[in-house]
Amino acid sequence: MTSTVRSLAAGAPLEPRGGGLVPAPVHGVGLVLLVGGLLIAQILDGMDLNALSFVGGVVRKDLVLTRAMFGACIGAASLGTAAGAALFGAIADRFGRRRTLLLVVLMFGCGALATSQVQNVTELLVMRCLTGVALGGLLPISSALLLGNIAAAARLTAVTIVCAGSAGGTMLAGFVSSSVVPHFGWRAMFIVGGLAPLVIAPLLFLIVPSDRKAGSVIGSAERAPMGHGRSDDAFLFRGGVWPLTLVLWTAMFIGAFPVFVSVGWLPSLVAAKGASMAQAAVSLSVFSIGGAVGGIVAGGLADRFGYRVILPMALAGAMATALLGMSIGGSSTALIAGGAGFFVVGLLNLMGALVGRAYPDAIRGLAIGASLAVMRIGAATAPWAAGKLLDLGGGARLLYILCAVAGIVSGLVFMIAARLPRADTAP
Fold first, then answer.
1. Which of 123-127, 173-177, 179-183 has the highest mean pLDDT?
2. Structural domain includes residue 216
3. CA 1, CA 376: separation in Å to the nearest integer?
4. What is the pTM of this model?
5. Is 306:415 a contact under the CB 8 Å cutoff?
């Protein structure tokens, strides 16, 4: 019997491959091209995921949608991403990450093009759900590819750089909607969002390493995560693995609350204090930009100091989140929102990257995808729970204090995962 997983502190199980020789990690120009290509793909993923939100008014008018119908279409995409993260993570582990990555990029490109042709709410609902499934598959596959092909000293930095593409995609969606839609209509938004992934697919084919790359090798002194074909590592809940899996999922679910409460409610709360819609939008934009930068910085620190950066970021994020709740409507709201995003979004991105280190390479895509699916469930629950609290008379201060508590709890739970002993053996 062989061990299937270690704690985050110990890292994933290691073993030599192929008679003491393993493929050399991607480095130099190849590393820059790989991270850059995956970053571009993630930016387009983020743009397509958020495109409907930016053209909501004209879509509702053109297709004669109620607010509830339109909300269901947005929710369908989110539910699709949750399913796609776990589904395509597992498919990539089984059939190869390179080919599955290309598949999901082509799928969400075609899904966006199909969305541009919908004529009623049913078609829009179905297409957003199916497109969401493909969109959800990109990040777990990209993360698993980077963790499996990059030297240990730069892995988490690379993963968090790619994660930052989601925020970049949101900003790109805003730019495209403001520059294209007024001249060509809302359908042009999805035509642009569909053609761009189809254009970059050949680029990804050239720069993403194959799953069984031949060529340069390094000696057996360098040890690599377990490769494909380990049938006893097929599940996340076998033997002693299940406590670690449940703890990691709990941390990801709770960690989604301070992030997606702000994503869903910050502009409305700022506007309710008398600010203009432009000022309200700036607060959320700065929050997202801060999160993208925070994730990259956190990844660099984690490459050097490991999981120990989690708790300081959680504590700093809690303080910034509580302060944001007290400052909403003031002149410093945007600045504090940027600081809160730096820590809470950066922390959530880092936790998603660290999950991949806890599992062997044979199930890494599934492990990352499943944790992202759980995080997406938290992302869907958080705005709803916040709305309930606000309806009951709780104000922004109480809401953000509870979010601060959630951030601390998430960090503490993740630290528990980092301290869990190495799993026993697979049955």
1. 123-127
2. no
3. 34
4. 0.77
5. no
Whether 225 maps to a domain, the answer reads: no
Q: What is the pLDDT of residues 117-127, one digit of tens each?
A: 999 989 999 99
Q: Is there a single domain that holds both residue 158 and residue 256?
A: no
C-beta of residue 274 within 8 angstroms of C-beta of residue 384: no
Do 170 and 238 lie in one domain? The reply is no
Structurally, the chain folds into a number of domains equal to 2
Q: What is the rounded distance in angstroms from the CA atom of residue 227 to the CA atom of residue 14?
A: 10
Residue 326 to residues 25, 35, 134, 279, Cα–Cα distance (Å): 47, 38, 39, 17
222, 23 Cβ separation under 8 angstroms: no
Backbone angles phi, psi at 234, to 5 degrees: -75, -20
Tell which phi-psi region holds residue 329, choosing left (phi > 0), alpha (psi between -120 and 50) or beta: left
Tell whether 48 and 89 lie within a shared domain.
yes
Say yes or no: 356 and 322 in one domain: yes
**Which residues sit opposite 217 in a β-bridge?**
23
Same domain, 270 and 202: no
Buried b (16+ CB within 10 A) or exposed e, 181-211: beeeebbbbbbbbbebbeebbeebeebbbeb
Per the domain annotation, does 138 fall within a domain?
A: yes
Q: Where are the alpha helices (DSSP H) in 328-395?
A: 333-357, 364-391
Contact 296, 341 (CB under 8 A): no
Q: 122 and 239 share a domain?
A: no
What count of other Cβ atoms lies within 10 Å of the Cβ of residue 134?
Answer: 26
The 10s digit of each residue's pLDDT in 247-265 is: 889 999 999 999 888 887 8
Specify whether 403 is located in the same domain as 259: yes
- For 419, the enclosing helix (H) or strand (E) is helix 396-419
- Spatial distance between the Cα atoms of 188 and 127, rounded to a whole number of angstroms: 16
Q: Which of 176, 211, 246 is the last residue of a domain?
A: 211
- Please report how many Cα atoms fall inside a 13 Å half-sphere around the Cα of residue 12, on the Cβ side: 25
Contact 258, 59 (CB under 8 A): no
Q: What is the CATH number of the domain that holds 77?
A: 1.20.1250.20
CA distances from 153 to 20, 29, 136, 246, 386 (A): 22, 16, 27, 28, 39
The whole-angstrom distance between residue 25's C-alpha and the CA centroid of its chain comes to 24
Closest CA to 148 of 341, 312, 319, 368: 368
Look up the domain containing 278 and give its range.
Answer: 234-419
Structural domain includes residue 222: no
- Same domain (yes/no): 280, 348: yes
What is the spatial distance between Cα 259 and Cα 275, in angstroms, rounded to a whole number? 22
